[in-house]
UniProtKB/TrEMBL annotation:
Gene3D superfamilies: Type I PLP-dependent aspartate aminotransferase-like (Major domain) (3.40.640.10), Winged helix-like DNA-binding domain superfamily/Winged helix DNA-binding domain (1.10.10.10). This is PLP-dependent aminotransferase family protein. Residues 15-82 form the HTH gntR-type domain. It comes from Luteimonas notoginsengisoli. Residues 502-512 have a biased composition (Basic residues). PROSITE patterns: HTH_GNTR (PS50949).
Length: 512
């Protein structure tokens, strides 16, 4: 058939011209609309379509590469017979169906991805997001070296479920020196962060319906894992001395979850009296204690607070530490100190969950700790974090004018800032205004199980440099002034109805 017969080509306007032409020619060939076995000469088609000849040449080249045009050259471009198979139609989007198991239903009920607190704020220039690690080029270099070394020397076999001995030894050493916890490598289980630790704790200790006491407020991710396992949650109050142990429902409570070194999120340090009380409660009632020591490494004033586990004579405490704060959360490594009577069950649970944590990362971390690199990194990080925390506190005080109350816990990578006399809805208004200005702020409300009458902000400072904190505070002040303007001297502010102020261990809650 002559090639000069007219062709009806429609370009779809999407992307570069040669790609549009390629698509149009493919469609014409498949639909038999090419009018013959030969494609028109490139010059002719270019003229007809008002395109450059190079565009047509590029399209023909692409068609030849994909098998639509026969390899023969010289006497024109022949349409291949048969044509290459059409790609399979795009998969039909499956409608989501209802949960297929009780567990799936529970997970759906308590895990709404779009409502996870502390997520990125769209369009934020700066964000006081909690849990963001410090950018640290020195750590990146050191870690790359450790990983490359470990990749060469680590066995490619499955690592032991309990974790590499070298990492368990290094962890024991570290725990003894820094956290006052004296255990042996056989007591340590290497886990995929605190999140896996709590899942294993639930596997080993809980049946659906068991009562678990959690601090109010608390780290929501732990509550959600426990709820998904069918636990019945009891929120127990927290004051300046930490968990109010007397509020725990006696006898029926199977597990008590606490953050004694640095209560999350208020920052209270659990007093010795409360620690003794809690351990006594566990020994008397047979309850277990989950000690979440998530950021015990970073304390800026005073001595580091020893872990609750260091006082545990009856082996009721399951102690969990993580490298998410001390290193970075992407590592997904942590450790669980198993009470000796539960060792076997924990190792079995870990095997069931994932056989073991990744071996190369474990080996790299073991060497990083044993060689002293980890503690050097901790020292430098603590210095930087201290400066960031001071910059944040100074800035907040400067713009407070009686509107903020800073809960200064002298530790960790976050602060709680209360807004006296304001409720959650007003805090949300501040958060929304700040977002409009390009600033990420986070209400403390999602960390409570029960609605509260006072609102506050959880302000993470680990991910912002001092200059960034200063810039973010300019935006913060603008939002604060816009949403909660300071009343003139003629109109004294309405005295807020307040609950007693949370005080830290030294009684130094800073009202600004
Ligand atoms: C109270 C608390 N525990 C534990 C973690 C760390 O969890 P993971 O080790 O799973 O990263 C965090 C992190 O934000 C936390 O806030």
């Amino acid at each position: 058939m002559p090639a000069e017969q007219p062709m009806y080509l429609e370009l779809d306007g999407d992307g570069p011209l040669h790609a549009q032409l390629t698509r149009a020619l493919k469609a014409a060939m498949r639909g038999g609309a090419c009018g013959g076995t030969r494609l028109p000469p490139t010059r002719l088609l270019a003229q007809e379509l008002g395109l450059s000849r190079n565009t047509v040449l590029a399209a023909y080249e692409q068609l030849r590469a994909e098998g639509f045009i026969d390899g023969r050259t010289g006497s024109g471009s022949y349409i291949a017979h048969p044509l290459p198979e059409a790609p399979p139609p795009p998969p039909v989007v499956q409608q989501e169906i209802g949960p297929q198991s009780v567990r799936a239903r529970r997970m759906r009920d308590c895990h709404d991805h779009s409502a996870i607190p502390g997520r990125d704020v769209t369009g934020a220039v700066h964000s006081f997001q909690y849990g963001v690690p410090m950018t640290n080029p020195a750590l990146t270099t050191a870690w790359a070296r450790e990983l490359s070394r470990a990749a060469q020397y680590t066995s490619p076999k499955y690592p032991p479920s309990q974790g590499l001995l070298a990492l368990r030894e290094a962890t024991c050493d570290y725990l003894a020196r820094r956290r006052g916890v004296h255990v042996s490598p056989q007591d340590i289980l290497i886990v995929g962060g605190t999140q896996q630790a709590i899942a294993l704790i639930a596997d080993v200790l809980l049946d659906p319906g068991d009562t678990v006491a959690i601090e109010e407020p608390h780290y929501d991710a732990i509550r959600k894992v426990l709820l998904s396992r069918g636990a019945s949650m009891q929120a127990v109050g927290v004051d300046a001395q930490g968990l109010v142990v007397g509020e725990i429902v006696q006898r029926r409570t199977k597990l008590v979850c606490v953050t004694p070194s640095h209560q999350f999120p208020t920052g209270a340090v659990m007093s010795l009296r409360r620690r003794t009380e809690l351990l006594g409660h566990a020994s008397r009632t047979g309850a277990w204690i989950f000690e979440d020591d998530y950021d015990g490494e970073f304390r800026y004033e005073g001595k580091p607070v020893p872990a609750l586990r260091s006082l545990d004579r009856d082996n009721r405490v399951v102690y969990v530490g993580t490298f998410s704060k001390a290193m970075f959360p992407a590592l997904r490594l942590g450790y669980l100190v198993m009470p000796p009577q539960l060792r076997r069950d924990f190792i079995a649970a870990k095997w069931m969950a994932d056989f073991s944590s990744p071996g190369i990362e474990q080996a790299a971390l073991a060497h990083f700790i044993a060689s002293g690199g980890f503690e050097r990194h901790l020292r430098l990080t603590a210095q930087q974090l201290k400066l960031r925390r001071e910059a944040l506190i100074d800035g907040l005080r400067a713009c407070s004018r009686g509107r903020l109350q800073i809960e200064d816990s002298q530790a960790g990578m976050h602060l709680v800032v209360w807004l006296p006399g304001r409720g959650d809805a007003q805090v949300d208004a501040l958060v929304r205004h700040a977002q409009g200005q390009g600033l990420g702020l986070y209400s403390i409300a999602p960390y409570y199980l029960r609605p509260q009458d006072r609102g506050g902000l959880l302000m993470g400072f680990g991910g912002l440099s001092v200059p960034q904190i200063e810039q973010a505070l300019v935006l913060f002040r603008q939002s604060l002034d816009a949403v909660f303007p300071v009343l003139s001297a003629m109109q004294p502010p309405r005295r807020p109805v307040q609950r007693p102020t949370m005080r830290n261990r030294r009684g130094r809650s800073r009202a600004s």
